[in-house]
């Protein structure tokens, strides 16, 4: 841009405070050489959802919300501004061929991971179906992987009734031998949000379930310590899948499947803070945020905040 | 419907998962023979409200929200799908004669209870005025009844100023000798939401008041244990009246009289779970949900969830 | 339902005026024997849309809006209440396989038409992709068909870039030899809403285009008279495809692709009134209504009103 | 208020331009002595509506919208700022006894008219039921009255099914001998918005009906000239009842019963301009504006604008 | 961006049709060498508004809406895709010093015009106050300028009461000798939207006023022909200032000062089409669009469409 | 108002219960003689905000919300109805000169305090910039003052980049020697909401910071006890500045800068209850409530509730 004072490209912020760096500025488009640290990949797909969902708009909304935060943690007295979040951009979905889209997700994420072996990927859904693609790619590159899933739902539905949807990712992964049931830990499973057949499937496959009663009784922190301890003895890396509907509807009003009786946001924040200190945690996704249903981007804001907390405490 | 594959009546869900039963499917229209278990009766009246209210739309909204839950409780490992909720439908209000509507409510509920002596009625308001009709009918059929009322407000206003409104149901019941003051327990009464004259009326009539400070100090569970113990020694059955505005505005954004300083939803859920285990609890109503003011049906969702928890734990 | 006075099934209207019949009551579920008159078929698919769309919810919304109209036309002094609209219900889409859904649409509509040779089908989208399926089925059963398409857009996009979407239905039909270009008439094509490549495609294929300037200059009525005259000499039946985005955004705020410079609703109403008097018009669809974006269901209301006007004037 | 510069009562506007007078400032509370010119009376009742309605909030909203206009007509080069609109305030409704409310309306309006014989009352509903009370009072004080009713609906429903509601005012007036059928002219009656029984009732009672086709064909102005000519030969004064739902939904999005196929706002404005020049027009009401459903108070704004146009052109 | 197939920068569109160019792609950031054709400059200021306004967000919203249109005009069979709209970006406002912001606007626009003598600037407000800055700069560079102002309001308020606000731009220009009153033509001035003092000021200063009655009687086209003819004999260039509130509220729901009785959008579109054919028209601004109040960006969409029509017909 | 029964001024409530006094009725316009107790002063300025803000509308919204509460505290069994809240009205802002507005705030508040030496002022913002004016006036009249600031943000930004905005009030006060850094206590400072430069500035200036971790660990009550103890030894009076964005977004959805990880409303309520018992607390402001962004006035409701709790417990 040629320099006329006070004339700035339309995309630039209208006000710049010399003492503040916006977290959105941490985003640096990937330049093709192997990156380190956290890397964002958008997986904008929600046509795979059982109910109407605009979760495909979440990567855009969450990135935008990163601009509403600064880079400085007063709690840790740590400024992230010298760090970068590598932004790999979004994987383009096919308009009408959803399986093709899912295949693209696997291939692209695999290639990103191969070319950036030290990156900690944070995949932004999209609905929860994208975790099947993402974890498949993750496992191909990284080997056996343990999963910590925050969710009100098992997502272990049968594949016959509707194909690979946002209700089936972990079923797909188990049946595809991408993960073992015993390497999957589900936290926040809720009453009247699942079918017994699928809870039984979980049990039969050795999946560890922490229900909301467990969360309320033990606290997310203790559950996560236990979970990480268990998984790290079995697998070489841990992948955290955060379905935002694990939260109570008061704290995540923008999820497609909101409901009462869920976690509060403080618990989830502290959970992510703990996980970010664990060297074995090597990847994360955040799914099921629908910006078209949200109130003032609250749910996207929280997602962006989780990314920053995840970045802040990494060893 | 004649069978053309994939062609279904418009009212049917567009997707059916063979491993999931929706709680809405538990609703079975009453067939005229004596029913058992829980029975829903809609009392769609809110023209009786002091302020503008669309609570008359709540029965429709709450029934619809039952379809957003499944029948399975992971906490209890219990599937309700073999149970039924008898749906008695809605009592039709008169367009302009509100007392006539209230009389219809008394008569219809009375007849439903007489013809279904074993039913546990769950009356869906409407505004809180419907409790006067409902409890009057309840008492006619069941005899002396104790009331546990969750509410930010006493609802003991004088009848001279505005007639039998949503501010007066418990005054009407006491003055009509339908209940005794000492058989009424009010939980969640809140600062700056009542008039001293009515708190005094409550005290003079022996009504037991647990304010929000009491709830915060003792917990809903302990208060309810105490309440049930007290009431069961005095009356033969207990009726629970849940005014959703007992909740803080963050958890029940769709009540006409929202405000800060109220209960959180987890407490109320656990309260209803406890009450559902008490054999003396023989009826319930849920009132003051206005779907036209709600955000994403959160308040109706919570109401539906309370019905399921009430059903789940019944002895 | 057993008779307790004033107790009605939840789905019944709460007030019934003895002098009014709601148009929604005209809907009669198909009983399997050959029906006559107008028949509604819901095609709830919008995952095929290029942009995020909730048009799949339109069949439900439009049917509901039929309940906000009565059966009586004061202009014609004609009461439709002795007529019926056969409701064939909705065709169930597959959750993740969109081509499978489109195949189901073809097969089901074909079977409906075969078993109901005298029905005038009104297909409720869904996005405009459903017209490809619907017209394909129509042509299979009825033979060569001429199309009058109200639309701001050609919908002649190439199939390579995104597959069979809501941008491609008429391209699909021409390339699949389901219709001839010269049998397609497009009304309401608008500036800055199309690509030249596709206007050229239209011209090369003999498609007749009436742009918005033409509509403003000639009036919809005169264009339609001309169009029907032209088509009836060439084909045995005419199918009308109404993409509601042909209207200006002020009159159809609930279409996914709203914009200025379109038709006003009165013109479209009069157009449909004229078409309904033409015996050669044998089918219609109404597409691109997204109830999740609408204001007070205005666009669904208008769609329902068009159905009634289409029914009213049929010879 | 004591004078501290720049400190103003909370209710005062925050900015005052010395060259602008807001139309809201024309409102002067009635001081008890006989007033002349236009007098506003609020009739905040909509519990009488067949469907859920917040029209009771319209008097407040319309008064507020008067503050968004100035007092100056550039078309007539006339400034109303030396005139006053006498504000009689609102008639308080009973909370639960709707007939009592209607009786209060009759008595209060009657007394206002008796004590202010030269006032031109403008009654602000509320729903259309208030016209029955208002016209009854009007006739008691002024003698035989002719009515020009703008409405999509006859409002001639039977009184048995729901009592005196917003569907019945003109039936009540005819059956109560308050007006004769031949003195009632209905403009804007619309397809699929009425029952044949009531159109027949209108015809049998000599009510003159101008349907929307008539309005589109003849124009509101010519219809009104004809109507005033007819009525002035038969009655001593004319009362205009404006149900805002006579307008198309695009122009009056805040009416409870919106729909397509109605008048545009320019026609209604010109109609009111004409009526305001007729000395025989002695009263008006504006009804069926529901501010809780409106978009940016558009419908209340238009109502306020009609009041000003009605005031502007009075002889 | 390194090439991984299907991985695209987050800012890129998720779907690209090879036959469609989006109008937003015409925007090319200025590279510093003299540009020709149309040049966009954002003037994001609305703190100067008398009422609360978010018009400062309009440049972003209008640019975004350019992406919802294509480059092809079917009416003219002309594709703009080989043309460019030079995007000069936005002028950064000061957070708290509004006069400083206005000075920046003058200086930057002046410099842009000096360095790009052949550009046709299109300034995107912001509120109408920005026209004072813009026209001042325009006149400094281009010499005497005639103004065609579309507006419901004169914007000739006194400067004493509130300083240079959105109510004063043309007063400022006249009093600052930037323009002569006789070189200002105001189109669409509306009843009850102005003060007589300011209409008198207009008349005394030789400003030509076309009220809404004039617009309805003569048509925008004829008024504009007359206006251009008049102005071109007096000044060397014409600047068009489009306050979107000249439109009726049904067509521009997102203006801060909406109201009934205004122009419809088709008239304004045709007016801009005509103006774009006049070689003397050398600049334009579009102001008073508040995206925070709009419905589905309708008003920004229309603003973007006007820009394209302005570009399309340029000689 | 002359007495016609049931006819009331438009501004009066439509229903009056003889046993209820609304808290809004406590507001008494200042009569010029020295007042005691709490005094409200509106400071409607938010053009000074860094981001778009409608906080200038908060004084009106909060006053209105006082009408949704009663005067009676059931917890304290204390009725405020014999008390008064002196309403000093609002200070009128200049339309375009924001510094002039800030100067008016200082002068008016100073004069109010001088003429009402015993008043406890509660200033209603506006954005947080108003605290600089308010505290400056406070200090001029009352001498050295200690500040307890609830806020997610330091508000210690530099003044060069944007002038005296809502990001700078406490920087202004320190640099202007209105307060000392060691007399400022900030509670609720949050991660990713501040710049390190400003946290360092706070530390260097002796400002005491309690971050959200501190609040979660110690509780608001204990922090406040400590804070009051510290301050009262150093200054003669304490001023409490409540930026509502100290709350989590779930509890204060109407603040411009919402986010996760904040306080819950119960903690803040209890904090204010405690502060109201401290005789040294001599003034308060409530800022950063934007009614245009809120949901059902939740944030204004909470602000009104805090005022009542602050009034309730005063010694
Ligand atoms: Ca999930
Ligand atoms: Ca989930
Ligand atoms: Ca209650
Ligand atoms: Ca209550
Ligand atoms: Ca189309
Ligand atoms: Ca289209
Ligand atoms: Ca009517
Ligand atoms: Ca009507
Ligand atoms: Ca203007
Ligand atoms: Ca204007
Ligand atoms: Ca602050
Ligand atoms: Ca803050």
UniProtKB/TrEMBL annotation, chains A, B, C, D, E, F:
Q: Which cofactor does it need?
A: Mn(2+)
Gene Ontology biological process terms from the UniProt entry = L-histidine catabolic process to glutamate and formamide; putrescine biosynthetic process from arginine, via agmatine
Q: Which UniProt keywords apply?
A: Histidine metabolism, Hydrolase, Manganese, Metal-binding
User: According to the record, how does the cofactor bind?
Assistant: Binds 2 manganese ions per subunit.
Question: Which molecular-function annotations from GO does this UniProt entry contain?
Answer: agmatinase activity; formimidoylglutamase activity; metal ion binding
Q: Please, which domain of life does this record's source organism belong to?
A: Bacteria
The record's annotation in InterPro entries points to: HutG, Ureohydrolase, Ureohydrolase_dom_sf, Ureohydrolase_Mn_BS
List its EC numbers: 3.5.3.8
Where do the annotations place Mn(2+) binding?
128, 151, 153, 155, 243, 245
The record's Pfam families line, in alphabetical order, gives: Arginase
Coiled coil, from the record? none
Q: Note whether Glycoprotein occurs among the keywords.
A: no
Q: Please report which protein family the annotation says this sequence is part of.
A: Belongs to the arginase family.
The record's listing under PANTHER family reads: ARGINASE/AGMATINASE (PTHR11358), FORMIMIDOYLGLUTAMASE (PTHR11358:SF35)
What is this protein's name? Answer: Formimidoylglutamase
The species this protein belongs to is: Fictibacillus enclensis
Lineage, highest ranks first: Bacteria, Bacillati, Bacillota, Bacilli, Bacillales
């Amino acid at each position: 841009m040629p320099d006329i004072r006070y004339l700035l490209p339309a995309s630039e912020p209208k006000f710049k405070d010399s003492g503040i760096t916006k977290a959105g500025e941490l985003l640096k488009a990937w330049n093709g050489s192997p990156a380190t640290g956290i890397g964002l990949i958008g997986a904008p797909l929600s046509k795979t959802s059982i109910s109407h969902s605009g979760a495909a708009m979440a990567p855009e909304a969450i990135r935008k919300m990163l601009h509403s935060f600064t880079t400085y943690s007063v709690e840790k007295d740590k400024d992230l501004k010298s760090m970068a979040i590598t932004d790999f951009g979004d994987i383009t979905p096919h308009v009408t061929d959803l399986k093709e889209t899912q295949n693209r997700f696997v291939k692209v994420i695999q290639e990103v991971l191969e070319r950036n072996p030290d990156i900690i990927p944070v995949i932004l859904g999209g609905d929860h179906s994208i975790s099947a693609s993402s974890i498949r790619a993750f496992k191909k590159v990284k080997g056996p992987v343990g999963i910590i899933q925050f969710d009100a739902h098992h997502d272990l539905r049968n594949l016959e009734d509707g194909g690979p949807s946002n209700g089936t990712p972990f079923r797909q992964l188990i049946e595809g031998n991408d993960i073992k049931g015993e390497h999957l830990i589900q936290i926040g499973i809720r009453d009247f949000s699942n079918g017994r057949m699928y809870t039984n499937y979980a049990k039969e496959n050795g999946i560890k379930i922490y229900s909301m009663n467990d969360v309320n009784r033990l606290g997310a922190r203790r559950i996560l310590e236990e979970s990480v301890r268990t998984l790290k003895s079995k697998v070489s890396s841990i992948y955290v899948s955060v379905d935002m509907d694990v939260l109570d509807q008061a704290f995540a009003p923008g999820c497609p499947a909101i409901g009462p009786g869920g976690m509060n946001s403080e618990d989830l924040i502290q959970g992510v803070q703990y996980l970010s200190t664990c060297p074995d945690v090597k990847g994360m996704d955040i799914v099921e945020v629908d910006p078209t249903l949200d109130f003032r981007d609250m749910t996207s804001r929280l997602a962006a905040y989780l990314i920053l907390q995840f970045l802040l405490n990494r060893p």
